[in-house]
Structures are given as C-alpha cells and as structure tokens.
Amino acid sequence: MPRLTPDDDSQQILKATRGTAIELYKGEAIRITNLHGSQVVDTWAVNLLDSSECGALEHTRSINSNIFFETDMTLVSNLRRPMLTLIEDTSPGRHDTLLCPCNSAIYQELGCTDYHRSCTDNFHEALAERGVACSYTPASLNLFMNIPVADDGSVQRVPPRSKPGDSVTLLAEMDVLVVLSACPQDITPINGAERQPSDIAWVIQPLRAQE
Hints:
The protein has helices at about 55-65, 105-110, 120-130, and strands spanning about 10-15, 20-25, 30-35, 40-45, 70, 75, 80-90, 95, 140-145, 165-170, 175-180, 200-205. By secondary structure, the protein is of the alpha+beta class. The protein has one domain (about 20-30, about 40-205). The chain is globular, with a radius of gyration of 16 Å. It starts with 11 loop residues before the first strand and ends in a 6-residue tail after the last strand.
C-alpha cells in the first residue's frame, strides 16, 4: 500500500558497485542523490505486478522525441505506458538513454580476466532478492551519465557533469520496482576521471495525504 507518511525519512545508502530494488507505489517519488558527484546510476522500472513489463528506452526516446532524459519527461514501458516521470533535477544533466548496462562481456572486452561486477548482474540480483525474475536485461536509464553525441552520430564516454549532492527525483506513474545500480565501471571514465565507483543515496518521498 502507498505510504502516507515516511517510515524513516533518512537517506538510504547504496554502496558502490551494488544494486537494489525498491518498491515505489503510484504517486510516490524517489530522490536519488549523487553523493560524490561522479557516480552513474543505471536505473530500471519493473511493473510490480508483472515483471514482463519494464521500462523501454526505445519507446521512451520515441515518446519524448529526445535521446536524452530531462525534467518533465517520462520513462515508458514496452507497452508504452508511463512508469516514472523526472519531476526534479538539480544536476546539469543530461541523462543518457543510449548506452547499454555493463555486463560480463563488456569487461572481458576491456581486458578483465577475473569476475567483475556489472550493472546487469546488479539488476538480476536485486530482483531475485525480491523474489522476482526478468527473462532479459532491459536497457537502463543511465542517470548522471555524460554521453555527448556529435553531428556525425558518434558518441563519447566522458565524466559526469554532476556535482556532489546533485539529485534527481522520479515520480511513480504506476506501482513499480525501481532497480538502481551504482555502476561498477572502473576502467573507462564513465564514473569520473579517477575511475572510482562511489556510494549513492536514495529516499522515498511518500504520497501526500490529500492524494
């Protein structure tokens, strides 16, 4: 059931390289804070009642007619139904919708010979902890990820423009599991020039009583 008052209004910490799945009911919002300023947060929405319905970036780009995700834009599902709307953003943006969540194959391409945590693993592990399974890995909404796109269509992977304490707030348009991954990337500068993943914070803003 939606929360009318917070159980605990203190921020929750998600450790670097890890993931979590958070129940968010329609009308509630989640604020995600970039504590150190340079951490990318791969983000997914999964229908709380049907894990076959997930946020779909290809449909989100189509609905918004934009390759970036900015304030007042909505993440829609593979059924083109609204899931999450960005209602507040204190960062410079922009938030990437193009790059895939990292997985084991990417780290092998980058020269890793031992196991390396990935956003893909974080997604499925976080769902499993909730007793939920998804048969595939949806594309992620890459909060704080800075991927400039040139006129010729080429993209760059450069450090985020966000600063410590910058945050985004996402409003639930349906009952969802919001899955967050504090991206483990430490080889490219996706998580800053120092290539050091860091903790993030999140807090649920409950449904207002009059709603």
